[in-house]
Structures are given as structure tokens and as C-alpha cells.
């Protein structure tokens, strides 16, 4: 990897899912140079990684105003995270609540590791903004998705790397219906359709059937949340936030 000279630059944590895809469009609308970063940590739904390049390619084709801003893509092997995690995201086990009260889809330390590695790459590349799809409005209570966690992490990373990174979480206070609305605001119906068809959210990696709201099993917490948000977005209603 070589260092970029861009001053107005961002690195987006891009998994291939709805939230990170919307964040990518958000960043491209604001920054002159945007790169993407994905992680292979042995996730059960690693089909999301296969969606990343297709989404990037379609985005450049359908939105030429963003094409020249979209830079390199980085993929990091983080299999060690999957090796030390015993969760429904990294094991073929039933999704349920754990003894801690959190769903067993919670991968301890995941977002902390993601952002730390992102900062190291951004430091080398000369990128100034780190963008993630963390949200504590529609979420399952994951502590590493909270605004306080991200603010604290920004301070820690800047102290530890003697830098001035800005951690942006544009979805932090949006529900899933608002996330669909944000996509429409950024790229109209074309972007909404691209997110609907080209991204993946389903925890179990089901991608056989295309529903009105996208691909997925329709039964896991991620599918239910995405479906509920899409239906509320189409009807113009607000979603009542409930843990899933």
C-alpha cells in the first residue's frame, strides 16, 4: 500500500451489508478520496464479502460522480477473531440470548479491533476520517456499537498514534427506516435498489431468495430488522425501535 496525498479523505469499514454500503455512499458524497476496508474473520455469513466488489463496481457504474472518488479496497484476514470467538456469528449454532443478556451474535471486541486496524491503515495511507456503520438506535445492545464507545475509541486511537483521526458514525441515531431514507437522499431510488439487491445482511448467509427488502432467510434478527425498516420506509412510517 502506498500513502495518499488526499487531505479530505476517508476510510470506510465496508462489510458488504446494508449499513456499511449506505455509509460508503455517505462518505463518497462528502470526501474527495474514499477507500474501503473489509475483514474476513470467519463469519458465518461471509457471503457478505462476496457482495463487496459487486457493490463497488455497480456504484462506480451507476454514479459516475462518485467513481473518481472511490479508491482502493483493502481486505484483512482477521481469522484470529473467529478462532477465539464462540458466537452464532462464527459458529453453526442457534441464535439466542446468552447468559449476559446479549444475543449470542455479539462478537466481543470486533468493532474495537476493526477500528484499531482501520486507524493503522489510515495512518499509513494518509487518510483522516474513519467511517463505520455502528448504531445504537436499532441494534441488539452490542456495547461496541454505542456512541460512547466510539467517542472513547477516537480519543484512544489519537493518543496512541499521535494523530487527529475523526471517527464518523452517520447511522448512530437512525433507525433502519431512516437508513433506507438516507440512501434515497444520497442516490435516489437507484441507490436504494442497489442496496436492496447487492448487499447482504442475513446472519445465516442465506442468499437464495430475493424478497422485497433484499436477500435473506427472513427469520434471523438481522433479516427481521431489515424487513421491518424497509416496510416502514416504503409506507412512510417511523419504526418503533425494539431490540432484536
Automatic annotation (TrEMBL):
Cofactors, names only: Zn(2+)
Any one GO biological process: tRNA queuosine(34) biosynthetic process
Residues noted as binding ATP in the record, renumbered to the chain: 14-24
Pfam family, one: QueC
Catalytic activity from the UniProt record: 7-carboxy-7-carbaguanine + NH4(+) + 2 ATP = 7-cyano-7-carbaguanine + 2 AMP + 2 diphosphate + 2 H(+)
Pathway assigned in UniProt: Purine metabolism; 7-cyano-7-deazaguanine biosynthesis
Binding site for Zn(2+): 202, 217, 220, 223
Regions crossing the membrane: none
Family matches, as CDD domains: QueC-like
EC number, UniProt record: 6.3.4.20
A GO molecular function held by the record: ligase activity, forming carbon-nitrogen bonds
Family classification: Belongs to the QueC family.
Name this protein carries in UniProt: 7-cyano-7-deazaguanine synthase
Gene this chain is encoded by: queC
Amino acid at each position: 500500500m502506498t500513502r495518499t496525498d488526499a487531505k479530505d479523505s476517508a476510510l470506510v469499514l465496508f462489510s458488504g451489508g446494508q449499513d456499511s454500503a449506505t455509509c460508503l455512499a455517505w462518505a463518497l458524497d462528502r470526501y474527495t478520496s474514499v477507500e474501503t476496508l473489509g475483514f474476513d474473520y470467519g463469519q458465518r455469513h461471509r457471503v457478505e464479502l462476496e457482495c463487496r466488489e459487486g457493490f463497488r463496481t455497480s456504484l462506480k457504474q451507476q454514479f459516475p460522480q462518485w467513481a473518481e472518488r472511490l479508491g482502493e479496497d483493502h481486505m484483512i484476514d482477521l481469522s484470529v477473531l473467529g478462532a477465539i470467538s464462540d458466537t452464532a456469528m462464527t459458529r453453526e449454532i442457534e441464535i439466542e440470548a446468552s447468559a449476559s443478556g446479549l444475543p449470542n451474535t455479539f462478537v466481543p471486541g470486533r468493532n474495537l479491533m476493526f477500528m484499531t486496524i482501520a486507524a493503522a491503515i489510515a495512518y499509513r495511507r494518509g487518510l483522516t476520517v474513519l467511517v463505520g456503520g455502528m448504531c445504537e438506535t436499532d441494534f441488539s445492545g452490542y456495547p461496541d456499537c454505542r456512541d460512547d464507545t466510539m467517542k472513547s475509541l477516537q480519543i484512544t486511537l489519537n493518543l496512541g498514534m499521535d494523530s487527529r483521526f475523526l471517527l464518523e458514525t452517520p447511522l448512530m441515531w437512525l433507525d433502519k427506516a431512516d437508513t433506507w431514507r438516507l440512501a434515497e437522499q444520497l442516490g435516489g431510488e437507484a441507490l436504494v435498489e442497489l442496496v436492496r439487491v447487492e448487499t447482504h445482511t442475513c446472519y445465516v448467509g442465506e442468499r437464495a431468495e430475493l424478497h422485497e427488502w433484499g436477500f435473506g432467510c427472513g427469520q434471523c434478527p438481522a433479516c427481521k430488522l431489515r424487513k421491518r425498516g424497509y416496510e416502514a420506509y416504503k409506507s412512510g412510517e417511523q419504526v418503533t425501535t425494539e431490540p432484536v
